[in-house]
Structure formats: C-alpha cells, structure tokens
Amino acid sequence: MVGLYRYKANNRSIYFNFRFNIAQHSGDILLINLLIKYFNCGKVHLLSNTNRCNFYLQYLNNIYNIIIPHLDKYPLNNNKQLDYADFKITANLFKSDGIKNTEMIKKIIYYMNSRRE
Questions:
Q1: Which helix (H) or strand (E) holds 87?
Q2: How many domains does one find in the chain?
Q3: Hey, which residues does 5 pair with through a beta bridge?
Q4: Residues of the chain falling short of pLDDT 70
Q5: What residue numbers bound the domain in which 108 lies?
Q6: pLDDT at 1
Q7: What does the pLDDT read at residue 14?
Q8: DSSP string covering 21-76, please?
Q9: Which residue of 36, 65, 81, 101 is 20 to 30 Å from 89, comparing CA positions?
C-alpha cells in the first residue's frame, strides 16, 4: 500500500507512506507472528473488534531490501501481483527522486487496488 498525504499546515506539501501489509483472520495470529521471525522485521497488530490481525512494516529500507526481493523471487499468482508491480514501481520512483516523481507516483497509486480495471 502506498498512501499519499498532505501536511495540514501546508496543503501544497505532500508525502508518501509506503506500507507492506498482510491481513488474516485473528485465528491465524500464530502464523502472522511467524512472518516477523521469517522476515526478521515488521509488527503484528490484532484488531479485536474485527477479528482480524495484520502483519505490517513501514520502514522503507526493509521494503527495499527484504520485501521487494522476496516478492520478486516468489511472485504472487493472483491479481495482487499487479498491485505489487505498481507498489514496486512507486517505491523505485520514490527512491530515485521522490520529489521529481510525485505526479507520476500519484497517478500510479490512484489506480492501485480497488480502482484497478
């Protein structure tokens, strides 16, 4: 997931929030906790009001150095692969020069996930 945010004090300033997230039923909390051990990073959040748990990480270096290489080596065999491809493109654009690539990143993230045709 890539989020686009504007600073409240200055609507012209924007920033991107890169977040890798896996959601499961809370009954799978043991499995989700194993992801921390496997990737050696991340956090687990248990959402008791929705019976859901999430493995997530937001540290960009872990996304670049751990998650992207892992998903390149073990591609997803479903429609989430398209979202991952866009996620990777936006991460690389941001890494190369996020400020200059802002408009391109905004266009890509607009069509990710539920807005994909």
A1: helix 80-97
A2: 2
A3: 15
A4: 1-15, 98-99, 114-117
A5: 75-117
A6: 54
A7: 64
A8: EEEEEGGGHHHHHHHHHHHT--EEEEETTTTEEEEEE--HHHIIIIIHHHHHHS--
A9: 36
Question: In this structure, what token pair is assigned to residue 12?
Answer: 């012209």
**Neighbouring C-beta atoms of residue 40, cutoff 10 Å:** 9
Q: How far apart are CA 87 and CA 1, in angstroms?
A: 7
Confidence at residue 67, expressed as pLDDT on a 0 to 100 scale: 93
Quote the tokens at residue 49. Answer: 């009001």
pLDDT, residue 15, reads 67
Separation of alpha carbons 9 and 57, rounded Å: 27
Identify whether 14 is part of a domain: no
Q: Do strands 2-6 and 52-57 pair parallel, antiparallel, or not at all (unpaired)? A: unpaired
In a domain, 4, yes or no: no
